[in-house]
Structure formats: structure tokens, C-alpha cells
């Protein structure tokens, strides 16, 4: 039994017409008829009842249709896997990410990779801040990271989001009545933020903004991720500076107001990888990422 014979059989079974099936397969009708005869001889059964006007499946032919379709689909998947391996499009790519920006960006990439690179396994490792991502890219424990610029020597990065900073506030906070909040407005506020030891670019931007406004922030508590951070805000523990993508996290008693005034940065969020990483799987993922996560048109380096 040959796959080409099964391909011919399925085409005739679906068309119930040898001429149309041959046209669909881009072959002459005579070779197609020969394929069906050889398949029938191999199986020892008649698959079609043929007259000068009609073609019908026999009971044996009806029993063969679905198994033949599954076998052809498996064979096609096998071809894709082998061809992908030849081009390096199989393997594993480990992605380190953390924060609201990554949660906003990664779903599009993972869906596209799963659809277009079935041989590549994306391993997602969450709760990794910028400093941790850059360190792990350098030591090779992750292949791709989501990090804020700037990156260190030996790391290549491409910006995929430009994140404005916003202030998360308890809904009954006096500042919640304003259209915008300045860093100076936070001088007397208790602030919740991310751990200093983990290299959070958002925390660094918040501390720098407060220093530029003439004060050091009063850190009330640290949180390991955006969800817990906003939960602390909603509980009235303090206010927080977060990226605009955090607005997608809906928690009761939390409102967001834009940070306004001179010197408020926009954080460039990038996909980053170790310069010289020659993984073909990583290269294939990056090619997809360039399409589904383009650099924002209004981003200026």
C-alpha cells in the first residue's frame, strides 16, 4: 500500500468522479485508475462500484475513507516535522518574562509560533524582571526575554512596546479625582513597588522620577508581580507607579491616572536575546515576532 494510492483513493471517494479527481491531483485519469486498481489488489477488495455514468463507494470503500484520511494527515505532519528539522525549526526556545507589558505582548507571539512552528516548543518562565532576564540571557538559561531598555553588552534587543507610566490609586484616594498625577504629588504618599533586588525597570523609573522631583519615595511594601502589587493598592496599602498595560488587570477598588509633567519617561519594552545565539529555532521565532510584534511606529530610539 502506497501513500499515493491512498491519496488517489481519497480524491475519488470525495469527488465520486475519476475525471474530477484526476484534475484535482494534476494527473491523467489513466494513472489514477491504475492506482485504484493496485490499491484494490493490495487490499483484496473492491473499493468502488463503477458504471459508465456513476462511481459509488462499496462498503469496504466506505470503511477505508476515514482511516485513509487520518493516515494521510499523519504523513503530512511527519513531512512538516522532518522538513522543519532540516531547517532548524524544531527544538525548544525558553522565554523569560514578567510584568504587564509581557502579558500584553506574548499571547500574539505564542499563538503564531504554535500555528506556524509546530516543531518548536516555547517554554514560558514568568515572574522574571528586566535585570533577571538580562542576567539569564547572558548565562544562557533563557533564549529570549522581555526587558526594558537599555540592555547590557552582549544582548541584542528590538522594541515591541512603548509603555507610558501611570499611577495606580485606591479608588477613594484624593488623587483619583484628578485627570493626571505628577511625581511631585507622590511626595507624601506611601508607595508599593517591585523588589529592588530583582532589577525592575519600572521601580527604577519610579525612584528616578521621585528623585528628580526632589524627594525619595516612601516604600511601604514590595510585591512580586503586577497582580499582587495592584491588590495592595486596592487594599489601601499605598499607591503605585506601573506601566500602562497594567490597566488590563481589573481589580476592585483600583483606578489608574496618567503620570504627567516634565521628565515622565516612556519605557521601551523589548524582546532581547544573547548576541551570537545561533539557535535556528530562536531565529525562526524571532522572524515571526518581527511580524506579529512590530516595533511601534511612533517609537523613536
TrEMBL record:
Keywords: DNA-binding, Transcription, Transcription regulation
GO molecular function, one term: DNA binding
Coiled-coil positions: none
Superkingdom to which the source organism belongs: Bacteria
Stored Pfam families: HTH_1, LysR_substrate
Record-annotated membrane-spanning stretches: none
Location of the HTH lysR-type domain: 1-58
Family statement drawn from the similarity comment of this UniProt entry: Belongs to the LysR transcriptional regulatory family.
Record-given protein name: LysR family transcriptional regulator
GO cellular component: protein-DNA complex
Entry keyword Glycoprotein: no
Organism: Streptomyces xanthii
Record has Transmembrane as a keyword: no
Amino acid at each position: 500500500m502506497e501513500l499515493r494510492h491512498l491519496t488517489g483513493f481519497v480524491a475519488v471517494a470525495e469527488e465520486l468522479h475519476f475525471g474530477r479527481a484526476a484534475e484535482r491531483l494534476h494527473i491523467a485519469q489513466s494513472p489514477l485508475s491504475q492506482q485504484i486498481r493496485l490499491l484494490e489488489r493490495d487490499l483484496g477488495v473492491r473499493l468502488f462500484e463503477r458504471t459508465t455514468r456513476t462511481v459509488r463507494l462499496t462498503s469496504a470503500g466506505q470503511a477505508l475513507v476515514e482511516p485513509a484520511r487520518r493516515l494521510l494527515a499523519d504523513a503530512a505532519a511527519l513531512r512538516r516535522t522532518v522538513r522543519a528539522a532540516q531547517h532548524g525549526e524544531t527544538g525548544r526556545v525558553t522565554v523569560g518574562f514578567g510584568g504587564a507589558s509581557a502579558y500584553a505582548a506574548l499571547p500574539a507571539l505564542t499563538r503564531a509560533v504554535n500555528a506556524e512552528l509546530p516543531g518548536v516548543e516555547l517554554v514560558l518562565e514568568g515572574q522574571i524582571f528586566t535585570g533577571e532576564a538580562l542576567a539569564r540571557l547572558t548565562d544562557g538559561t533563557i533564549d529570549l526575554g522581555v526587558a526594558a531598555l537599555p540592555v547590557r553588552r552582549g544582548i541584542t534587543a528590538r522594541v515591541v512596546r512603548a509603555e507610558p507610566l501611570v499611577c495606580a490609586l485606591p479608588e477613594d484616594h484624593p488623587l483619583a479625582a484628578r485627570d493626571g498625577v505628577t511625581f511631585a504629588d507622590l511626595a507624601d504618599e506611601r508607595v508599593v513597588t517591585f523588589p529592588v533586588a530583582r532589577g525592575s525597570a519600572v521601580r527604577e523609573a519610579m525612584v528616578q522620577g521621585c528623585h528628580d522631583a526632589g524627594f525619595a519615595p516612601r516604600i511601604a511594601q514590595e510585591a512580586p508581580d503586577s497582580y499582587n502589587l495592584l491588590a495592595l493598592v486596592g487594599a489601601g496599602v499605598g499607591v503605585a507607579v506601573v506601566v500602562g498595560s497594567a490597566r488590563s488587570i481589573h481589580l476592585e477598588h483600583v483606578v489608574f491616572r496618567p503620570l504627567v509633567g516634565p521628565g515622565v519617561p516612556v519605557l521601551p519594552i523589548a524582546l532581547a536575546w544573547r548576541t551570537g545565539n545561533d539557535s535556528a529555532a530562536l531565529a525562526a521565532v524571532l522572524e515571526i515576532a518581527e511580524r506579529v510584534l512590530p516595533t511601534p511606529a511612533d517609537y523613536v530610539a
